[in-house]
Fold each of these.
Amino acid sequence: MAASLIHVSVSPGEQRTALTRDGVLEAAFIERPARPEGVGDVHVARLSARAPAMGGAFLAMAGGETGFLPDSEGAKGRHEGEWLRVAVSRAAQGGKGPRLALAPATPQEPLQGPVRLLARGPDAPLRLAGRHPDARLLTDHAATAARLRGALGPERVALTTRPAFSEELEEEFERLSGMAVPLPGGGRLTLHPTPALLAIDIDAGSQAGGRDAAAHHALNAAALAEALRQIRLRHLAGAILVDMAGMKVSARQALLPGLKPLLAADPLLRLIGLTGLGLLELQRRRVHTPLHEVLGHPPSPLTRGLAALRRGLRDAAARPGAAWALTAHPAVLAALRDWPGALDEFAARAGPLALRADPLCAAGQEHIHAA
């Protein structure tokens, strides 16, 4: 049986979680605890407006957020002004608020205002641990190890003095921040998220041209397997169209049977079929925030700043007691100042950090160095 391991890497302002099976990345999450995505959170909310044309109702939630409760999840028969106990079933994403489902009320808790958060849902390590009960957890953060041991038992959770992510895992997460995925033989997948759908293009690269039909079938079958893996790893969802490389439209139907085991591994993903233009059409249910929305595309100033803090901690561990400074674009420094706790966490683990603004510092060139 394949050995599963859940890696939990904690750095200032961010928690990254990976599930590997025999060294292969199977799931990836990037969470920012100062502002959780909220899936599984339980709220007392107030029904603010019925939306019959949309088949549900809008609910006012804590923090000024507005969620949508479908009729099929408990809105039917409810009236404006009613207090409801709801759980977040889909994170806010794509400019839309969270999706909600009615949660059972308890006798000890009368349903009345104000709007408030009752309980946080499990984070990625706990969700993955529940889905993979045989997997052990490895983390490089003492407080996280203590929290996870309290929830899962001490035997499942190991604390390491080395980084929880290997260099190979760091490289995989770095690739997840971009929209191009290299394929064997020089090809690549290019992902194009839009407000309406996700388009994926398969480029055969140096393998294009001069190949027979069987070779093109094998090439596209392997590329589609990687495309479905990337969809799952990146939490991509909604309508998805994939354009194959170097195949006649009439030949593409033969690729569909080979997708069945891959689709079975992702219960959120559904195959629709081929469009008239021969594009593979998929649909995936939205649950978690897509990674490109978490990180920004291109990476946001906050993402660049948190990455610099993460790299800086590794350098600081090798030189305890040294004074450190971060040189970055003013927008990056502003994002870090505004993000709750990130700079304080770095200072607690490595000492005070001087901030030096450089308007000419290009994206990806942010660095922490000895002051």
Amino acid sequence: MTERRTASISSRKQPQQARSTELVSAILDAAVQVLTSEGAQRFTTARVAEKAGVSVGSLYQYFPNKAAILFRLQSDEWRQTSGLLRDILADAARPPLE
């Protein structure tokens, strides 16, 4: 019996330089555009790379598959929402609604 491969949802590596940070940002922006315009069914790494204007190889340096891109988008959204809620709750000038 062969062992089943599991998809990795973590990034391959973290960008170290400004140029690579911009590349990852372009990939994530392109991913949102592909999801918005074509939907989840047609979401592929090739479409994301094309929309970002990078090679698929460059995309794969940072994301092993489309699941990793989607996980990163969701994680970023959770982080942003958590920060927003934390700021709202910490604002003493705005009492909670009754």
